[in-house]
Amino acid sequence: MTRLHVAILDEELPYPLTSGKRIRSFNLLTRLAKSHRVTYIAHRNADLDEVQTAAEALREHDIFPLVVDYQLPPKAGIGFYARLLRNVFSPLPYSVTTHSSHAMQRAIDRLVAADPPDLWHCEWTPYAQALRGRPGRWTVMAHNVESVIWQRMAEAEGNPLKRWFIRQQWKKFEQFETWAYRAATRTIAVSREDAERIERDFGAQAVDVVDNGVDTSYFTPDESVPRNPYRILFLGSLDWRPNLDAVRLLLDEIFPRVLAAEPRASLSLVGRKPPDRLHVEISKRPGVELHADVADVRPFLHRAGMLAVPLRIGGGSRLKILEALATGLPVITTGVGVEGLRLTHTEHCTVADGAEAFAVALLEAMRTPYLVREQATAGRARVLAEYDWSGLADRLDRVWQDAAGAPLSHPETGPLLPALTRR
């Protein structure tokens, strides 16, 4: 195997491990840094207190962090709505325009001049824009097929004006992803389903699969802690719209049905950066508690009776489901929630779509906990066999080697979108 110099482009340094994307990035890239020289170019974390800690965590794993002097604009206030309005007239999705910066372009220029990488790796699809028009070999990590998420949000949105804007973003992402997946030396999907979609719908020729995974030595069962069969756990980043949509469904339609039938039921919401309005609402909801920005989610996974993942919007695959099964926690989810994971309904988890069916599944799990625990045992065996990070890092290593040895390409401006003047 050739030792490569790989430059990562990302929105932030992936630490602390408080989101699925950070967990994936950190676990894969720290393992690959044992075999390759890795430079991590990222915009400043939104939480400035994280930057120093994150940089130190990467250096401990022999990754060189290069923090770009640019912070992503907030998603609130008059300025946010002004940016949304301007984006109506842009050919690019909002996520791409706000993540494009002169500062990152200058950092790329400096690295090319001083220590040119063998391979560039875009750790999120919008960062392919930073390489538009630049010669070189590069990969793009499609944590989700972004246009699919926007399509599902459009289908779930009831407000006509919001639905119109979301549809605009959906179509813009379809165009952008068509360019990015075709221009990349190799595209990396997180599931076979996503890879097939990228090949079929976007015409990409070189697509690999590196699944999401779990640290199976960190997430383990704890038989000394008794499970409460009536405690429902929701786990996920609470600043991500698909998760907030799932929480809204739980609070408004699913949990009230459960509580009416089983007064002992309780719901724990655990996640990073919940909006202020959620704090206020939870204080008025019987049987519901919110735990924000916890340092370690394992105590919640060990004590709950089941993990509820009522996703209606999403893409990629859910790390939280893998983490739950690794600890032996039963999982109740939807077709969207289990999408991309090699898990089977009734064998490894329970799949229920629609608020009423989901509530019934939760109640059945409370009444027959031994049945869903048998599912969790089988699910844990599947996770141990197929989803450990070490094997997945080896797979990404092979993708990098193939990409670095591919013929040199020149990412064109592209027929679908004009060249942009970056901010």
Average predicted confidence as pLDDT: 93
Strand order of the largest sheet: 3-2-1-4-5-6-7
Q: Give the helix proportion (percent range).
A: 40-55%
Shape call: globular
The total of beta strands comes to: 13
Distance between the termini: 39 Å
CATH class of the largest domain: Alpha Beta
Rg calculated over all Cα atoms = 21 Å
Q: Main β-sheet: number of strands, strand sense, barrel status?
A: 7 strands, parallel
What is the domain total for the residues?
Answer: 2
Tell me about this structure.
This protein is of the alpha/beta class and 423 residues long. It has helices spanning 20-32, 49-60, 77-87, 94-98, 102-114, 146-156, 160-183, 192-202, 241-261, 276-282, 298-303, 319-326, 335-338, 355-367, 369-386, 389-404, and strands at residues 5-10, 37-44, 63-71, 119-122, 138-142, 186-189, 207-209, 231-235, 266-271, 288-292, 306-309, 331-333, 350-351. It folds into two domains: 5-213 and 389-404, Rossmann fold, CATH 3.40.50.2000; 231-386, Rossmann fold, CATH 3.40.50.2000. 46% of the residues lie in helices and 15% in strands. The protein has a seven-stranded parallel β-sheet, sandwiched between helices. The chain has a six-stranded parallel β-sheet with strand order 10-9-8-11-12-13, with helices on both faces. Helix 12 links the parallel strand 11 and strand 12 (331-333). Helix 1 packs across helix 16 and helix 6 (146-156) runs antiparallel to helix 7 (160-183).
